[in-house]
């Protein structure tokens, strides 16, 4: 059963809260009502597949940080020129995780950006 937190805590200065806050998880229902649950923690360790996915995302972030400013700008421009609802970073991580070179070649052709050297 959801708990109703005291109003002053969540309406402090007019802020709208969602996500995890201290020991609570909060979100708004479709009708705008604040729903609050006690935060739940995992009851078992991550699987090998989860650990591999986390390592892949971490490697993508490290590779992004190693790019030059010009390379990052090219990825950002490609995302903007194609009206993708993502940033250049998100586009780079998508490519790093999926490795889909055919899609990337299409993006390069459509935007005129050289994304891979």
Structural write-up:
- By secondary structure, this protein is mainly alpha-helical.
- It folds into 2 domains: 7-38, no CATH class; 48-111, no CATH class.
- 50% of the residues lie in helices and 11% in strands.
- The protein contains 5 helices and 3 strands.
- The chain has helices at residues 7-10, 48-66, 69-81, 88-98, 101-111, and strands at residues 19-21, 24-28, 34-38.
- The protein has a 3-stranded antiparallel beta sheet, with no helix packed on it.
- β2 (24-28) and β3 form a beta hairpin.
- α2 crosses α4 and α3 (69-81) packs across α4 (88-98).
- The longest helix is centred in the middle third of the chain and has 19 residues, at 48-66.
- The mean pLDDT is 85.
Distance between the termini: 55 Å
- Class by alpha and beta content: mainly alpha
Total of helices:
5
Topology pattern, helix = H, strand = E = HEEEHHHH
Mean pLDDT: 85
How large is the radius of gyration?
20 Å
Overall number of structural domains: 2
Globally, the shape reads extended
Q: Write out the strand line-up for the largest beta sheet, numbering strands in chain order.
A: 1-2-3
Q: Please summarize the sheet with the most strands.
A: 3 strands, antiparallel
Which blocks of ≥5 consecutive residues have pLDDT under 50?
A: none
The tally of strands reads 3
Percent of residues in β-strands = 5-15%
Helicity, as a percent range: 40-55%
């Amino acid at each position: 059963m959801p708990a109703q937190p005291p109003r002053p805590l969540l309406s402090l200065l007019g802020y709208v809260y969602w996500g995890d806050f201290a020991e609570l998880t909060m979100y708004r229902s479709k009708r705008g009502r604040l729903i609050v649950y006690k935060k739940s923690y995992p009851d078992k360790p991550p699987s090998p597949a989860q650990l591999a996915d986390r390592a892949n995302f971490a490697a993508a972030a490290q590779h992004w940080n190693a790019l030059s400013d010009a390379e990052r700008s090219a990825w950002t421009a490609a995302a903007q020129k194609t009206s993708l609802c993502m940033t250049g970073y998100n586009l780079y991580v998508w490519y790093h995780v999926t490795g889909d070179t055919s899609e990337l070649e299409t993006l390069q052709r459509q935007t005129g950006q050289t994304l891979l050297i």
